[in-house]
Design brief:
Shape: globular
Distance between the termini: 35 Å
Structural class: alpha/beta
Strand content: 15-25%
Length: 386
């Protein structure tokens, strides 16, 4: 079947919730992907910051193949070795004590909010404007985008307060005696690659400790090396009570998780939370391969070196249409003075996959293995199109 025939299947049978690019991708290698018509693209989007090791990475593929030949799923009723090994490995690399496996970022954030409410016995949660925490009913309420709220206001739970990002005074004013948690992205992704002041997260941490509020960092997009450290909150020298993760954790397989301190994690007892698929042997085998590769191959060094180079090259572009370049590591945004959708289309036609968020911000979150040469290839095309 050709591209148009395949796209028509979606038009005829899918529930319409996505506006997709008119491309049917077939296979990939490294930072490049190829569609069914043989057109090749440099992937600067990585499945929304998911494909940390790019496409067809040999270590990741081998781990998935070998595990698939043994066990794919066994449920949460039984132990499995990949999940246990991964938990020990990740906990020992972070400041947390306990882990819960989920299937996505939204599930991780929902579980984190439940844990905070159970631990404190309170019911209000503070989040920030332009944040994105998921599309379940609870995480949608936490997400600070009014246009996402509007169609579902009748069923959104009460107790969620959205305040401006990077505004510590707004957080102080929003706190009540019923505040259970503050949830924040260390760097906002969907909101347009927004980076807070260095003291912002430290102030939140201090307030939470003083008032017995649970401090949650949402590292779904910023985690697993995306911003140059294993997790972005490390850049700000804070130790949250709970951290959520997903996207890059499995290098492409659906996986998420919650990390928490012993004190907060102890609030959950059997029956309080659960999952059918979370922490299955296949996804945990993949997660082990991703984490091992990030560490063994010094991927963070590449993220910092190429990320700094990428940002510096973007800042050399002298165009009236560019308002600002901002980012950390390989989480980069180019804010325009006009809507960016047309540039997404033009770059795709030129062989580059990106997306536009917050209407005017071209978002670049390529695989963490991208090279300076590939950055040069992209920046040259971007320069010409702008």
């Amino acid at each position: 079947m050709n591209t148009q025939e395949l796209i028509k299947i979606e038009d005829d049978y899918f529930i319409n919730t996505f506006t997709r690019q008119p491309v049917v991708l077939d296979h990939g290698e490294g930072v490049k992907v190829t569609d069914i018509d043989g057109n090749e693209y440099l992937d600067m989007f990585a499945g929304i910051a998911v494909n940390a090791l790019g496409h067809n990475h040999p270590k990741l593929v081998k781990a998935i193949q070998e595990q698939a030949e043994k066990l794919i799923h066994i449920s949460s009723i039984y132990y499995n070795e990949p999940a246990l090994i991964y938990a020990k490995k990740l906990i020992e690399m972070t400041s947390f004590d306990r882990i819960f496996y989920a299937n996505s970022g939204a599930e991780a954030n929902e579980g984190a909010i439940k844990l905070a409410v159970k631990y404190t016995g309170k019911s209000e949660v503070i989040s920030t404007v332009e944040s994105f925490h998921g599309r379940t009913v609870v995480t949608l309420a936490a997400t600070g985008h009014e246009h996402y709220h509007e169609p579902f206001k009748a069923i959104l739970p009460k107790g969620f307060i959205n305040v401006p990002y990077n505004d510590i005074e707004a957080i102080k004013e929003a706190i009540t005696e019923n505040t259970a948690a503050i949830i924040v992205e260390p760097i906002q992704g969907e909101g347009g690659i927004n980076i807070p002041d260095m003291e912002y997260l430290k102030e939140i941490e201090k307030i939470c400790h003083e008032k017995g509020i649970v401090f949650i960092v949402d590292e779904v997009q910023t985690g697993f090396g995306r911003c140059g450290t294993l997790f972005a909150h490390e850049l700000f020298d804070v130790k949250p009570d709970i951290m959520t993760m997903a996207k890059g954790i499995g290098g492409g397989v659906p996986m998420g998780g919650i990390l928490a301190t012993e004190k907060v994690a102890s609030a959950f007892v059997p029956g309080d939370h659960g999952t059918t698929f979370g922490g299955g042997p296949l996804v945990c085998a993949a997660a082990n391969a991703v984490l091992d590769t990030i560490v063994d191959e010094n991927i963070l060094d590449n993220v910092n070196e190429v990320g700094d180079y990428f940002i510096s090259e973007l800042k050399k572009l002298d165009k009236d249409v560019i308002a600002e370049v901002r980012g950390k590591g390989l989480m980069v945004g180019l804010e325009l003075t006009k809507p960016g959708a047309e540039y997404v289309d033009k770059l795709r036609e030129a062989g580059f996959l990106i997306n536009c968020t917050a209407d005017k911000v071209l978002r670049f979150v390529p695989p963490l293995i991208i090279t300076k040469e590939e950055v040069d290839e992209f920046v040259k095309a971007l320069d010409e199109i702008l």
